[in-house]
Amino acid sequence: MTWWLLAGALLGGLGISAVAVAMSIRLAHRFDVLDYPDSERKTQEQPIPKLGGLAVAVAFAVVVTIAMQFVALPGEGQLAAAALVPAVFAGVVGYIDDRVHINPYVRLTLQALTGILVWLLGTRVGLFQIEWLDAIVVVAFVVILINGLNLLDNSDGLAASTTVIAALGAAVIAVIYEQELVSLLGFALVGITLGFLWHNWFPARVYLGDSGAYFLATLLAVAVIRLRPEDIPPSSGVVIALLLIALPLVDTTYVAVKRLSAGIHPFTAGRDHLSHAIQERGMSVPASVMTLQILSLVGALGAVTVASI
Fold it and tell me: Exposed/middle/buried for 262, CB within 10 Å: 0-12, 13-18, 19+?
């Protein structure tokens, strides 16, 4: 696979996504699919469209369909299905949750089903060499990343910029391992997320919604799990995966520990994330996002370094 195809997936994804998101903003205003301020968690000054997730999903499907016309490698159809099917399922679950607020335990079950879909469609690990145990690892990773990225979607540009850095790290590692299809998936994911971020950076003109966060997180999970470090021990592979999702992992752990220690259910919504803690100390939203992305960048660079050893 040539660099022009990878660059095309990134730049094409960016352009198609930027246009698709712009169209979704108009549709959201027309059909009143808006996120209204509530003076508590949602502190934006006006209603914000939240069909960004749908636009991102459409953009990714278009980019992958076009890219596959230029690829003649074994397993291309399998990888496309392995990425798109569970991501679309997760996106639908997120969209329903956006509209009717699914019971947290039902939502968790549906997220686990997403992870099972990921496993059944061939995105697997061989960490323990025990199939059912390895399947649990995959499902847990998918569920943790879906919730972690969704929880990060609390400040303009935070979830999207996190996805860009993690996906870019995964794509570079895939290039190092000569995994051409995974690198294509990674660069396409970077492109469509950048196209969304163009509209989502502060002050945001559109939100991902649960549907978009679930969709992007599932694609990212597939890309990360599909990395195949042949010449390093399995423990190093685990380190690479954890470094790539460092920020969602740290933020989720921070929130869960803080809520449980205060006797609050971890599924409770609130303004108690790392970004909120930073903003309460006087830092602006863009500055807080860029500060947190230092952790993402360090994690991605660390993952690439481990993969390169």
Answer: exposed
Strand intervals (E) in 159-202: none
Instruction: Enter the tokens of residue 45.
Output: 């000054």
The contacts of residue 121 (CB under 8 Å, 6+ apart) are: 78, 81, 82, 85, 86
Name the one residue in this structure whose structure tokens are 């994330």.
273
Alpha-carbon dihedral sign for residues 210, 215, 218, 223: negative
Q: What's the domain range around 189?
A: 3-308
Largest CA distance in the chain: 55
Neighbours of 305 (CB within 10 A): 11
Lowest mean pLDDT among 74-78, 105-109, 117-121, 267-271: 267-271
What residues pair up with 196 in beta bridges, in sequence order?
none
Instruction: Report the alpha-carbon distance of residue 180 to residue 73 in Å, rounded.
Output: 9
Residue 189 identity (one-letter amino acid): L
Count of CA atoms in the C-beta half-sphere (13 A) of 28 = 24
- Residue 296's closest CA among 192, 193, 201, 163? 163
Residue 235: C-alpha distances to residues 26, 125, 127, 229, 304 (Å): 47, 12, 8, 11, 15
Considering its fold, how many domains does the chain have in total? 1
Among 160, 162, 146, 161, residue whose Cα is nearest residue 215: 146
Rounded CA separation 151/121 (Å): 26
pLDDT interval class at 260 (50, 70, 90):
confident
Please provide the size of the chain in residues: 309
Q: 34 — phi, psi (to 5°)?
A: -125, 155
